[in-house]
């Protein structure tokens, strides 16, 4: 017998779509004519509601696990402006510390004079040099490194 009427009633009672209503093959269902009859069948578990599909979190969890390991954080994932991830101050500190370490190393080895060290330290603080290579080139070009002549590029 056709139970579409009971299915429609059950969907209204359970507040869901008729597509989600599941009914057992039973004579009681065919005889149910009122909302109250349908409610009793729901309590008896002759009429049930199919669970919604929902969204799976499996892929999201897998991706999060990879991120915890340090993956998926490359240049393509970094948003924002140029200094959004590494601020100007951090870049500045990295550059200046490298230059100061180089100066100290040259001074300790005796390759530059103490007076040159002081002068170069101040120039480095003033932001005159882009990087260590630039500073070394300046020192060599001006003959401040012992053993190199002024204007000699290969020294």
Distinctive features:
single chain; 155 residues; mainly alpha; 50s Ribosomal Protein L19e, Chain O, domain 1; Non-ribosomal Peptide Synthetase Peptidyl Carrier Protein, Chain A; two-stranded antiparallel ribbon; 7 helices; 2 strands; rod-shaped
- The rounded distance between the terminal residues' Cα atoms is 101 Å
Strand content: under 5%
Report the sheet with the most strands, covering strand number, pairing sense and barrel closure: 2 strands, antiparallel
What's the alpha carbon Rg, rounded to whole Å? 39 Å
The CATH architecture of the domain at 88-141 would be: Orthogonal Bundle
**How is the CATH topology of the domain at 88-141 named?**
Non-ribosomal Peptide Synthetase Peptidyl Carrier Protein, Chain A
Percent of residues in helical segments?
A: 40-55%
Poorly predicted runs: none
Number of H- or I-type helical stretches:
7
Strands, count: 2
- Compressed to H and E, one letter per element, the order equals HEHHEHHHH
Task: Quickly name the level 1 CATH class of the domain at 88-141.
Answer: Mainly Alpha
Shape: rod-shaped
| Class computed from helices, strands and strand pairing | mainly alpha
Rounded average pLDDT? 92
- Physical arrangement of strands within the biggest beta sheet: 1-2
């Amino acid at each position: 017998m056709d139970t579409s009427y009971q299915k429609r009633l059950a969907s209204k009672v359970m507040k869901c779509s008729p597509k989600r209503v599941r009914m057992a093959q039973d004579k009681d269902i065919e005889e149910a004519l009122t909302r109250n009859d349908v409610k009793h069948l729901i309590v008896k578990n002759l009429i049930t509601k199919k669970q919604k599909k929902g969204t799976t979190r499996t892929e999201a969890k897998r991706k999060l696990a990879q991120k915890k390991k340090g993956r998926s954080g490359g240049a393509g994932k970094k948003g924002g402006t140029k200094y959004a991830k590494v601020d100007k101050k951090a870049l500045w500190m990295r550059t200046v510390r490298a230059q100061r370490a180089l100066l100290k190393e040259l001074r300790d080895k005796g390759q530059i004079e103490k007076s040159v060290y002081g002068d170069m330290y101040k120039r480095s603080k003033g932001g005159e040099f882009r990087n260590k290579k630039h500073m070394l080139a300046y020192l060599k070009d001006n003959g401040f490194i012992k053993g190199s002549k002024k204007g000699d590029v290969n020294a």
